[in-house]
Amino acid sequence: MLIYTVQPGDTIAAISRRYGLPPARIEADNSLRDGSRLVPGQNLLINTDTVRYIITEGQTLFSLSQEYGVPLESLIEANPELDPLNIRPGDAVMIPVDGSGERRQALFNGYAYPSISTNALNCVLPFLTFISPFSYTLTPQAELIPPDDSSLIFSAQRSAVMPLMVVTNIFGEGFDTENLSGILASEELQQRLIGNILAEVTSRRYYGVNMDIEYIAPDDRERYNAFLERLTDQLHDRGYIVVTALAPKISPDQKGVLYEAHDYEAQGRIADYVIIMTYEWGYT
Questions:
Q1: Exactly one of 173, 214, 222, 265 is catalytic; which is it?
Q2: Structurally, how many domains does the chain consist of?
Q3: In which band, very low, low, confident or very high, does the pLDDT at 236 lie, cut at 50, 70 and 90?
Q4: How confident is residue 101, by pLDDT bands cut at 50, 70 and 90?
Q5: pTM (2 decimals)?
Q6: CATH code assigned at 272
Q7: Are residues 166 and 247 both part of a single domain?
Q8: Both 44 and 128 in a single domain?
Q9: What band does 139 get if pLDDT is binned at 50, 70 and 90?
Q10: pLDDT at 1 over 80
């Protein structure tokens, strides 16, 4: 299994020929409703360990190793019946693409609306570490409005995926800076919110909380840092983790309401994990 990044001009048909998989298989594995609408930079799951490739004029094992990012030694080892110095058009070459070798551990989180279809959920659960049902919203009095996520939590736990409680500063229809400021300005409201989070995490058997707090006012930068520290200390005392979500930046001093009030260094230090919301680029 590997991840393929779509290049300009790519089509499902071309990718299927490259990896020897039916187009329908690639579309199904990636839940693509319209395989003709690929976007450069999009990542696709290629569910295979070996590609059977037919050599064309001018190709060598070295050129294949460069094209597929596979060490030449691995190609030679996978094809003991071939003479590496006498490759001819029409020869079949087995290309290992399982990324064998030293690997780093990876954790995978997936956001999901409670309305997600059962088929889509079952397709992704085997690959997830965490699932984050979207989302709890807030009232100005720091009360929580829960999503209808009971079935998501049940499915996650049945699949050994850890559910995370997602808390957003959505008040009504959208992310709200002013009401968030009111909560951050009051230690009483902050502690009420932390207490409500703890109650929900405990009663609904979440693994921890995912704080997706956006559009913070610049004056609230330090208040939010202090709130995160207090939240993390109290959740850690009870064995839960804290995850934060941050918009992706392309420079340290990037301007904009999504970036300036968020202390990336502090959140990286305080939280157990940070999710960089690169999917935000898909909305622009």
A1: 214
A2: 2
A3: very high
A4: low
A5: 0.72
A6: 3.20.20.80
A7: yes
A8: no
A9: very high
A10: no
**pLDDT higher than 70, residue 102:** no
Encoding tokens for residue 281? 């680029």
Which residue range forms the structural domain that includes residue 28? Answer: 2-96
214 is catalytic: yes
Amino acid type, 52:
R
Residue 284: pLDDT band with limits 50, 70, 90: very low
